[in-house]
Amino acid sequence: MIQVENLTHWYGERTALRNVNFTVAKGEIFGLLGPNGGGKSTLFRILSTMMAPTEGRALIGGCDVVRDRAAVRRQIGVVFQTQSLDRALTVEENLRAQGHLHALSGALLRERMEYALSQLGLEDRRRDVVETLSGGLRRRVEIAKALLHRPPVLLMDEASTGLDPAARRDLTRHIERLRDREGVTILLTTHVLEEADRCNRLVLLHQGQVVTEGSPQALRSRIGGDVVVLEAEDAKALAESIERRFQLRASQVDGQVRVEIENGHRFIAEVVEAFPGAIQSVGLHKPTLEDVFVRETGAQIE
Amino acid sequence: MSSCGKRGRKLNSFILPAATLWQRELVRFWRQKSRVLGVVASPLVFWLLIGSGSNDLARFYSGALVLTVMFSAIFSTISIIEDRREGFLLSMLVSPAPRSSLVLGKILGSATLAWVQGLIFLCFAPLAGVRIAPLELIPVALAILLISFTLTGLGFVIAWRMESTAGFHGIMNLLLVPMWMVSGSLFPMATAHGWVRVLMWVNPLTYSISLLNHTLAMPNAQPGAMTSLLVTLAFGLVLLAASGIMAAQKSTHSTA
Question: What 3-state class would DSSP assign to A266?
Fold first, then answer.
């Protein structure tokens, strides 16, 4: 449904994207995960036809985002990171205006508005002025607006920014329902791990490059066992001592020592015993996408 | 999948987006009525101060009315800058609606608002000793409408490329307000000296003020009525065309 081929983009001297490739199948939720400045927004702007790439190409439904711009625009619904609703208008007025932009009118427009409102559970909010809605509801209206012309592809840029965890989960639920009931293909950018975990597949973007790709489960299973995180006064020295003593890899990120290991609880007992006083805090968790990111890039997402 | 060719454009896909943008401007305006006060009040105060101080309210009336229209047109078009970064314009830009129709809708909407506020200012005409017979209202209203279009077009052309509203304020103070000052609003062309007179002669706004003076039957309106009409009309059309062309241009860097 979406094909990205050798995409490269420069802002003057700075490379924002470097030879990015991936494909998104119909009816999947596909995530672009990475830190801010990693290239997600650039990629999003290119896919949403707002900007032409320096090199390479991107196809949506077989249509080129630069050459067949108009055809692509009919196939995509776009949800921006920033608000694109008119706050002075009601939910219904916003939707109607959007429908007019897509040349929808009369009975067809009314039918589509009902469809979009019901998909996002907004039927009883239709006459509310957007200004008076909560952040979570506004996001849902944004999505309803993007769905009005029934696009097969929905593009969402950091859609959960500024939402509390409950509103975020609610949003995820609505997106999954769209995929399951309507077969909508969804591409979203995020730096929120919880959100990334709900995607069917992901690419990890770092410094404009695809670091790795796969389902969240597959990515996490690359790290066997547990992740142990140690905080120390001198993380560098501790990491080196651990490597010498236990014959394993201890990476060091932002003053923390990370070790990937089977049976982490046993390791913790040993390591605390071995370096008394050197360790300030100890943590153990099952591998997360953050761990995958750290492992692949040596940097953290947030 | 669907074909990627261009779909034949129906009239609907041009008129509907323009109409909806026009309507949006009016609805927003209606819901934020305090804006009227802001736009009409400051020209009114300027006018009363300058006019009363020099004991000649009539002389400065047209200038103050055009200033009202200018403020309204500028404030409406300034919203483009913020709208593009965060707002309604974003979703317009990725919709299949033709840019020309979006530009038309925005300019129609903003010009209508400027016109309405110009008409509100017209209610103060009796204070200036200007008596307008009902039938004479028609040419006056039409002249204000034309001036509204022209100034909205000017605002659009400036705002479209602007990155920040701060830049727009700079242009307003360095270009638009001086342009207004040497348009016959404060002193007539006949009494102007040297290079300022040349500036007045090339300033399109001079012809707008003069057009208004002619329709209000003010004494000493200069240049002539026909010249004023034609220059204002031509200026408006050039700006409208420029707006359309600028908005249609593709961008290779960030539009957001």
Answer: helix
